[in-house]
Design goal:
By secondary structure, the protein is α+β, with helices and mostly antiparallel strands. Among the domains are: about 130 residues, no CATH class; about 110 residues, Glutaredoxin; about 70 residues; about 120 residues, no CATH class. It has 28 helices and twelve strands. The strands form three sheets. The protein has a six-stranded antiparallel beta sheet with strand order 8-7-9-10-11-12, covered by helices on one side. It has a four-stranded mixed beta sheet with strand order 4-3-5-6, with helices on one face. A two-stranded antiparallel ribbon has the order 1-2. Helix 2 packs antiparallel against helix 14. The radius of gyration is 30 Å and the shape is globular. The chain starts with a helix and ends in a 6-residue tail after the last strand. It is found in: Endomembrane system.
């Protein structure tokens, strides 16, 4: 087994691939991470305060979230990639393990992002779409950008993260699905989409009411997840898995309100795009001829830096820089200008032969590059144009011209080298690279063992109700397995992927919502759950998980329900500027249906149910009181409680 795995890894390592997918993966991962940090900042009182706005236990949380956001921005732009990824990975571990994020506000997203962040540490993320690559070019002996080779990476950096982060996840999830009746009936994708707590603002009833289509989708998902790990690397099957996977996670993002999970999974499909597609896409998006020819002074360090910088951001390759001192007479529009004039300013010629110079050249560069065209148009605005022209003139007239040939380093730059784990581990001589691959093979085997332990422990033994307590050996083995799972979950994100199964929906027959009495004595709904039972934006993602997966479940826990009702009422009282001591909150309840069999138009039926009053909750002198009617909860036990300002766990 070891020799087989080493041989496969060695073959993939020696197979070059374009770096485009890796760079795009890093960029999109950073965007998903940044939006999640913004979400945590927006809801930091609800998530981290034991009692929102009343008992603030973590006053420095916003500060550390802002530091984390800075790291995410660095990941997006590719600045100090390695350090930013390390900082982000450590923040994931600290926030998940030492704050209420995991205990009350986790929906499986955190473990996945932790695992993704771990593998990003060892990927060549600074090759494309990264400021680090530009810094490297600017700090090395000057070469025209056309002389820089196109960055390539090892195919292993594509296949290994997909195999572990997607392949293991799908296979583990498919094992759990076999034990769920609604998944065996082909309704695994249909059932969550019929539950008011789980759906987005888009009503997908027209789509959900197609029984044959929904069952087909359900069975395709099971087959897809079981087979993905074995066949995704096949060059002929990869496009099929690419489109099915994108459709699956795009559907989750659009139809359900757990969009962060859907987006996080979608990001990984950048690594599944066939390599030849990136080349074809580049050929299709780039013009056959440059849209703008810019003539620069090769003896001007500032001009050289400008040429390298513009080319770095010109992802569609619409701009081409030419040496103004050797341009010959191929441009009639410039032939009448003396060389001293050309070297004094930055001249350019567009595809129609029109000449621009000075700040107008920069405006044309921005417009011709396509995606920053709005900035170019903004620089045309009267006032802004005159200010930009004055700034440009001051810089251009005071620049220094020194002889700068192929062997010189551009002045005013700091020597910079890329020191990523990938470059240290793989970009070495053949002998050292082979040794490193042997180490990687051992690490890969360890990760496989950790995943197998997770799948057997929760996917088989737990699902089959195997009693391990009666046998001392099995009991010790189970305890050791739990300890290993704790470590692998915390640092690599290996966790059971038993999402939306029968033990989640079986008996999910009640929905709860909260209203309050306003100053006019009228009953109003908290902007949290509406009259249909939908959880309103922006309470999606982890806040949805808090209410729909922890507070309201088939077996409601009285302490947990009251704790989370306390957090919601305290949070929204402050946001709505309600007098907490004088506000009466009413807990509403209505029937919900989550059957494992097909029911036509189930979503609209669940949305249209009638609400009843379950009870009331009040605050007196910052102390929480609840008085809920147990009879309306049928067999669900919810007891009254009285809490002081400290939050029970």
């Amino acid at each position: 087994m070891y020799h087989f795995i080493f041989t496969k890894l060695y073959q993939l390592h020696n197979k070059p691939a374009p770096a485009t997918g890796i760079g795009l993966f890093r960029l999109l991962y950073g965007i998903v991470l940044f939006q999640e940090i913004c979400f945590l900042l927006y809801f930091h009182h609800l998530i981290f305060d034991p009692i929102p706005y009343i008992d603030v236990e973590y006053p420095l949380i916003p500060f550390f979230l802002c530091l984390w956001a800075v790291a995410a921005l660095f990941i997006i732009v590719g600045y100090q990639c390695q350090n930013a990824l390390i900082v982000s990975y450590l923040f994931w571990i600290v926030f998940v393990q030492f704050t209420p994020m995991q205990r009350d506000f986790d929906g499986g997203f955190d473990a996945f992002m932790t695992g993704s962040g771990f593998f990003l540490l060892f990927m060549p993320t600074d090759k494309v779409f990264a400021l680090d690559q530009l810094r490297l070019k600017l700090s090395t002996p000057f070469r025209h950008y056309s002389q820089h080779p196109k960055p390539t990476v090892s195919s292993l950096s594509y296949h290994l993260p997909v195999f572990i982060c997607l392949g293991f996840l799908y296979f583990d999830s498919a094992i759990h699905k076999l034990f769920a009746e609604h998944w065996r009936n082909g309704l695994g994708a249909w059932l969550p989409s019929t539950q008011p707590y789980y759906v987005s603002a888009i009503n997908m009833s027209w789509f959900l009411n197609q029984e044959i289509l929904q069952k087909t989708i359900g069975y395709i998902i099971i087959a897809f997840q079981f087979s993905f790990i074995f066949f995704f690397s096949n060059r002929y099957l990869r496009p099929i898995y690419l489109f099915i996977g994108i459709g699956l996670h795009l559907g989750i993002t659009i139809s359900l309100n757990i969009y962060p999970f859907g987006l996080g999974m979608l990001v990984f499909y950048c690594l599944l795009v066939p390599f030849s597609w990136w080349r074809c896409l580049a050929k299709a998006l780039r013009p056959t001829q440059p849209l703008l020819l810019v003539y620069y002074d090769k003896d001007c360090p500032l001009c050289n830096r400008t040429a390298l910088t513009v080319n770095h951001f010109d992802i569609f390759k619409c701009i081409d820089f030419k040496d103004a001192q050797t341009f010959s007479d191929k441009q009639p529009a410039l032939s009448a200008l003396p060389l001293n004039t050309l070297l004094t300013d930055l001249y350019s010629v567009d595809e129609n032969g029109k000449v621009y110079h000075g700040i107008n050249t920069y405006i044309q560069i921005l417009i011709k590059m396509r995606y920053p065209f709005l900035i170019g148009w903004l620089l045309r605005t009267p006032g802004i144009h005159h200010l930009a022209k004055a700034i440009y003139r001051n810089i251009a007239d005071n620049r220094q011209r020194i002889p700068c040939n192929q062997d010189c380093i551009i002045p005013n730059t700091t020597q910079f080298k890329l020191h990523s784990f990938y470059s240290r581990f793989f970009e070495t001589d053949n002998l050292q690279s082979r040794r490193n691959l042997k180490t990687l093979t051992k690490a890969f085997l360890i990760i496989c063992i950790l995943q197998i332990n997770n799948s057997i422990h929760y996917g088989l033994l737990y699902r089959l109700n195997v009693d391990t307590r009666s046998n001392p050996f099995m009991l010790a083995l189970t305890q050791a397995s739990n300890s290993v799972l704790l470590l692998s979950h915390s640092f690599i994100g290996i966790t059971p992927h038993a999402l939306y199964l029968h033990d989640h929906f079986e008996g999910y027959d009640s929905l709860l919502a909260i209203t309050y009495t306003n100053d006019d004595g009228d009953e109003a709904w908290l902007p949290f759950i509406n009259q249909e039972g939908r959880i309103l934006a922006p309470h999606w993602g982890r806040v949805h998980s808090m209410w729909a997966n922890i507070a309201v479940t088939p077996n409601i826990d009285a302490i947990r329900l009251n704790k989370l009702m306390m957090k919601i009422t305290a949070y929204w009282s402050h946001r709505l500027q309600l007098n907490l001591d004088n506000t009466l909150f009413t807990i509403k309840i209505k029937k919900n249906t989550a059957p494992p069999y097909w029911v036509y138009d189930l979503l609209n039926k669940n949305l249209s149910g009638e609400w009843s009053n379950l009870g009331t909750v009040q605050w007196k002198q910052q102390q929480f009181h609840s008085n809920l009617n147990q009879t309306l909860l049928d067999n669900i036990s919810v007891q009254s409680s009285y809490w002081p300002t400290s939050t029970p766990e």
